[in-house]
């Protein structure tokens, strides 16, 4: 089994462990590589100040810290530099020109914020009390309006480009287990998802979709982002996948990979993509074959 995680957070944003601790954990778990993807700074661009984005004034410090870790771990663990960039319509996104000036190996595109019909912004993956309060105030408890806003923003981000990895495709479901604000089997929801997949399929294939186990690790979802149903749609369009833990702590690395790999195989996928270096800010990918016939015991058995 070759392990990797490109969606990784540290104490530079909302992670619990520092870069060295994350690298040591990845090495001890026999990872081939780890990529750091702090939530990119957005305060100067948007005026939105949070406790979970990298501060603008610490961007260079973050870059230097990851590049220093790359040198320290050279020959033992490949360390990659990335950012997770939020798409907020009219304010910021992965296609922003300033991101092209950074020495990134890859960029993750993500939607966390959605705009209500009145223009209020809320985060779809907020904590329970915050989510409930904002959902009631901004969307009048209208689940259809919320997931439509999410997938509209996601489609806009895809069309804008600039990313190498599409993050947590159906993050909007994170709070659905508790609040039940939509039914995944609802025809309208499925139509939104199908349209988003088709939007991705129409783009130049220079990106991968992540299979993100973060919701499973934290007990917020019973399956990865994206769900098995969405994975089947992605497979029909031959859109490649990479697996990640969206790790916010060292013990998250590799979490729930076995379950996710079985779900991927059940959706028809026979391989997942591993980063294999980068050049001029663009990752090189290589496939790793999934062998579901050997996957009953562990994730290690799922690879030939």
Explain this structure to me?
The protein is globular. It starts with a strand and ends in a 15-residue tail after the last strand. The chain has a seven-stranded parallel beta sheet. The C terminus is likely disordered. The chain is of the alpha/beta class and 304 residues long. Helix content is 33%, strand content 20%. It has ten helices and eleven strands.
Estimated structural class? alpha/beta
Mean pLDDT: 94
The CATH architecture assignment turns out to be Alpha-Beta Barrel
**CATH homologous superfamily name?**
Metal-dependent hydrolases
CATH class: Alpha Beta
Radius of gyration: 18 Å
Number of helices: 10
Order of helices and strands: EHEHHEEEEHHEHHEHHEHEE
What is the number of domains?
1
What low-confidence regions span 5 or more consecutive residues with pLDDT below 50?
294-304
Mind summarizing the main beta sheet?
Answer: 7 strands, parallel
Portion in beta strands:
15-25%
In whole angstroms, the N-to-C terminal distance is: 8 Å
**Could you please say which CATH topology applies here?**
TIM Barrel
Count every beta strand, where a strand is a DSSP E run of 2 or more residues: 11
Show the helix and strand layout:
Layout: E1 3-5, H1 19-28, E2 31-39, H2 43-46, H3 59-72, E3 78-86, E4 106-110, E5 113-115, E6 121-123, H4 128-139, H5 143-160, E7 165-166, H6 176-179, H7 187-201, E8 208-212, H8 214-217, H9 228-236, E9 241-244, H10 257-266, E10 271-279, E11 282-289
Parallel strand pairs: 1-2, 2-3, 3-4, 4-7, 7-8, 8-9
Antiparallel strand pairs: 5-6, 10-11
Helix pairs in contact: 5-7
């Amino acid at each position: 089994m070759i392990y990797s995680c490109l969606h990784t957070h540290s104490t530079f944003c909302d992670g619990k462990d520092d870069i060295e601790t994350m690298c040591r954990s990845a090495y001890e778990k026999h990872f081939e590589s780890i990529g750091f993807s702090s939530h990119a700074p957005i305060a100067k661009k948007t005026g939105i100040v949070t406790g979970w984005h990298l501060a603008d004034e610490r961007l260079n410090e973050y870059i230097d810290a990851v590049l220093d870790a790359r040198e320290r771990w050279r020959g033992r663990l490949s360390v990659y530099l990335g950012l997770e960039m939020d798409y907020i319509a009219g304010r910021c996104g992965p296609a922003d020109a300033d991101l092209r000036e950074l020495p990134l190996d890859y960029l993750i595109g993500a939607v966390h914020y959605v705009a209500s019909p009145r223009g209020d912004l809320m985060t779809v993956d907020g904590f329970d009390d915050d989510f409930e309060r904002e959902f009631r105030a901004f969307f009048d408890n209208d689940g259809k309006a919320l997931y439509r806003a999410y997938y509209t923003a996601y489609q806009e981000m895809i069309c804008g480009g600039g990313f190498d990895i599409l993050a947590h495709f159906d993050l909007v479901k994170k709070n659905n287990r508790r609040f039940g604000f939509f039914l995944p089997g609802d025809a309208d929801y499925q139509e939104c998802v199908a349209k988003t997949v088709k939007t991705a399929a129409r783009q130049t294939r220079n990106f991968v979709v992540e299979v993100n186990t973060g919701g499973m690790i934290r007990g917020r979802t019973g399956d990865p982002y994206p769900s098995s149903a969405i994975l089947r749609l992605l497979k029909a369009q031959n859109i490649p996948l990479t697996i990640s833990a969206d790790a916010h702590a060292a013990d998250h690395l590799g979490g729930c990979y076995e379950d996710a790999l079985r779900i991927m195989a059940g959706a028809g996928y026979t391989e997942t993509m591993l980063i294999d270096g980068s050049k001029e800010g663009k990752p090189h990918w290589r496939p790793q074959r999934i062998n579901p016939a050997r996957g009953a015991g562990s994730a290690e058995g799922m690879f030939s």
